[in-house]
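Box 3.1 A note on notation
Throughout this textbook, protein chains are presented in two layers. The first layer is the amino acid sequence; the second is a token string describing backbone geometry. Keep the layers aligned when reading.
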Amino acid sequence: MLRWNDFERIRGAEKLSQMRGIILEGYSNSGKTSILKELKKLHSHDYNSERSVIVLSEHYSQVLHRVNGELKSLNQVEHLNLLNDRVKMLKQLSVWAKEVGDSHRSKGIFFILERFHLNHRTAFSDSSLYKIKQIEAELFRLGAKCALLTISTEEAENRLKSRNPEHWKSKTEKETQIEVDHLIHTQHILRQHADNSIIPTLELNTDQQDWKRYAKIIYPGN
């Protein structure tokens, strides 16, 4: 997995010196939503930032989502179509923002996405990745960078239980361990896919739950 600065040095010809978007990836409870909130605050106080901002939470992009209150899992084709639609929207809005802009800040849009390309790769690891790589290439051209949020093995059980403590009271030790093992395994798969993606990715451990500090690492300001 390439660090952002290394990626910019290696791919200088790609003109990615300035970040135009952030993709937050990671297992449930890794802190995506908390960091997303802090990123929005940081961006709003950055005078040099883009005026036009698009923020899409995981409900607009992940494989598993709720429809009329019921959980639904998209198949690979459905999810690819969904991600394609989101990227097309970003491209169209970026072009529009540049065309109507009247100052140095009107340089396109800034976007924050939650659970996007790595979510797809992990859900469909055994299938062809050709089309998701095409989507990643489009995101790369839009200036996207990814933050993969992870939890250490030692902290995994506590973090899983923190969101809904009552739910875990009825779980046996074996059932809890299965969930912990699944988290750790999924993080391993996410890392592997991040290594194979064109989108520059920074892995960030969130054990301390210091959301403001993490946001500043991800978005230091342009």
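The chain has nine helices and seven strands. Residues 3-17 have pLDDT under 50 and may be disordered.
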